[in-house]
Protein backbone atom coordinates (compact mmCIF):
# COMPACT_ATOMS: atom_id res chain seq x y z
CA UNK A 1 0.00 0.00 0.00
CA UNK A 2 2.71 2.44 0.97
CA UNK A 3 4.62 1.76 -2.24
CA UNK A 4 1.65 2.63 -4.42
CA UNK A 5 1.26 5.97 -2.63
CA UNK A 6 4.78 7.02 -3.52
CA UNK A 7 4.96 5.40 -6.95
CA UNK A 8 7.13 2.48 -5.83
CA UNK A 9 4.64 -0.32 -6.20
CA UNK A 10 2.00 -1.57 -8.52
CA UNK A 11 -1.71 -1.15 -8.14
CA UNK A 12 -3.68 -4.29 -8.60
CA UNK A 13 -7.20 -4.43 -9.82
CA UNK A 14 -9.24 -7.06 -8.06
CA UNK A 15 -11.19 -8.15 -11.13
CA UNK A 16 -8.31 -8.40 -13.60
CA UNK A 17 -6.85 -11.62 -12.23
CA UNK A 18 -10.19 -13.41 -12.23
CA UNK A 19 -10.94 -12.43 -15.82
CA UNK A 20 -7.64 -13.79 -17.12
CA UNK A 21 -8.07 -16.94 -15.08
CA UNK A 22 -11.53 -17.47 -16.56
CA UNK A 23 -10.30 -16.81 -20.08
CA UNK A 24 -7.44 -19.29 -19.70
CA UNK A 25 -9.87 -21.89 -18.39
CA UNK A 26 -12.19 -21.34 -21.35
CA UNK A 27 -9.32 -21.46 -23.84
CA UNK A 28 -7.98 -24.75 -22.49
CA UNK A 29 -11.52 -26.15 -22.36
CA UNK A 30 -12.01 -25.25 -26.03
CA UNK A 31 -8.80 -27.02 -27.01
CA UNK A 32 -9.82 -29.99 -24.86
CA UNK A 33 -13.18 -30.28 -26.58
CA UNK A 34 -11.63 -30.01 -30.05
CA UNK A 35 -9.07 -32.71 -29.26
CA UNK A 36 -11.82 -34.93 -27.84
CA UNK A 37 -13.88 -34.59 -31.01
CA UNK A 38 -10.79 -35.48 -33.06
CA UNK A 39 -10.36 -38.63 -30.91
CA UNK A 40 -7.01 -37.46 -29.54
CA UNK A 41 -7.93 -38.52 -26.04
CA UNK A 42 -4.58 -38.23 -24.26
CA UNK A 43 -4.11 -34.67 -25.48
CA UNK A 44 -7.72 -33.83 -24.64
CA UNK A 45 -7.27 -35.13 -21.10
CA UNK A 46 -4.23 -32.90 -20.61
CA UNK A 47 -6.07 -29.79 -21.79
CA UNK A 48 -9.21 -30.58 -19.76
CA UNK A 49 -7.10 -31.01 -16.64
CA UNK A 50 -5.31 -27.75 -17.41
CA UNK A 51 -8.70 -26.05 -17.76
CA UNK A 52 -9.79 -27.46 -14.40
CA UNK A 53 -6.58 -26.19 -12.80
CA UNK A 54 -7.84 -22.66 -13.50
CA UNK A 55 -11.50 -23.33 -12.63
CA UNK A 56 -12.09 -26.56 -10.73
CA UNK A 57 -15.84 -25.87 -10.51
CA UNK A 58 -16.55 -25.78 -14.25
CA UNK A 59 -19.21 -28.46 -14.82
CA UNK A 60 -18.68 -28.48 -18.59
CA UNK A 61 -14.97 -29.21 -18.22
CA UNK A 62 -15.80 -32.10 -15.87
CA UNK A 63 -18.38 -33.37 -18.36
CA UNK A 64 -15.92 -33.17 -21.28
CA UNK A 65 -13.24 -34.89 -19.22
CA UNK A 66 -15.68 -37.65 -18.26
CA UNK A 67 -16.62 -38.16 -21.91
CA UNK A 68 -12.96 -38.21 -22.90
CA UNK A 69 -12.05 -40.85 -20.33
CA UNK A 70 -15.09 -42.92 -21.31
CA UNK A 71 -14.38 -42.71 -25.04
CA UNK A 72 -10.75 -43.61 -24.44
CA UNK A 73 -11.87 -46.66 -22.45
CA UNK A 74 -14.21 -47.73 -25.25
CA UNK A 75 -11.59 -47.28 -27.98
CA UNK A 76 -8.70 -48.91 -26.13
CA UNK A 77 -10.67 -51.57 -24.28
CA UNK A 78 -9.09 -50.43 -21.02
CA UNK A 79 -11.17 -50.42 -17.88
CA UNK A 80 -8.76 -48.09 -16.06
CA UNK A 81 -10.33 -44.96 -17.56
CA UNK A 82 -13.86 -45.79 -16.43
CA UNK A 83 -13.34 -44.87 -12.77
CA UNK A 84 -12.09 -41.33 -13.52
CA UNK A 85 -14.87 -40.95 -16.11
CA UNK A 86 -17.50 -41.79 -13.51
CA UNK A 87 -15.84 -39.48 -10.97
CA UNK A 88 -15.95 -36.51 -13.36
CA UNK A 89 -19.57 -37.21 -14.34
CA UNK A 90 -20.52 -37.27 -10.64
CA UNK A 91 -18.57 -34.07 -10.00
CA UNK A 92 -20.39 -32.39 -12.90
CA UNK A 93 -23.77 -33.42 -11.49
CA UNK A 94 -22.90 -32.18 -8.00
CA UNK A 95 -21.72 -28.81 -9.34
CA UNK A 96 -24.83 -28.06 -11.38
CA UNK A 97 -27.68 -30.60 -11.35
CA UNK A 98 -29.87 -28.38 -13.56
CA UNK A 99 -27.84 -28.65 -16.79
CA UNK A 100 -29.26 -30.53 -19.78
CA UNK A 101 -26.09 -32.66 -19.91
CA UNK A 102 -26.93 -34.17 -16.50
CA UNK A 103 -29.22 -36.73 -18.19
CA UNK A 104 -26.34 -37.89 -20.37
CA UNK A 105 -23.96 -37.96 -17.41
CA UNK A 106 -26.39 -40.05 -15.33
CA UNK A 107 -26.89 -42.47 -18.22
CA UNK A 108 -23.12 -42.78 -18.65
CA UNK A 109 -22.68 -43.44 -14.91
CA UNK A 110 -25.34 -46.16 -15.08
CA UNK A 111 -23.64 -47.75 -18.10
CA UNK A 112 -20.23 -47.67 -16.43
CA UNK A 113 -21.62 -49.20 -13.23
CA UNK A 114 -23.33 -51.98 -15.21
CA UNK A 115 -20.11 -52.68 -17.10
CA UNK A 116 -18.03 -52.76 -13.92
CA UNK A 117 -20.67 -54.89 -12.19
CA UNK A 118 -21.38 -52.48 -9.35
Task: Summarize the structure in short.
With 118 residues, the chain is an all-alpha fold. It has helices spanning 2-5, 14-37, 41-54, 59-76, 82-95, 101-116.
Describe the structure.
The chain is an all-alpha fold and 118 residues long. It has one domain (11-116): Tetratricopeptide repeat domain (Serine Threonine Protein Phosphatase 5, Tetratricopeptide repeat), CATH 1.25.40.10. The chain is built from 6 helices and no strands. Helix 3 packs antiparallel against helix 4. The longest helix has 24 residues, at 14-37.
Q: How many helical elements?
A: 6
Helix share, percent: over 70%
The top level CATH class name:
Mainly Alpha
Shape: globular
State mean pLDDT (0 to 100 scale).
Answer: 89
Observed structural traits:
single chain, 118 residues, mainly alpha, Serine Threonine Protein Phosphatase 5, Tetratricopeptide repeat, 6 helices
Fold blueprint:
Blueprint: H1 2-5, H2 14-37, H3 41-54, H4 59-76, H5 82-95, H6 101-116
Helix pairs in contact: 2-3, 2-4, 3-4, 4-5, 5-6
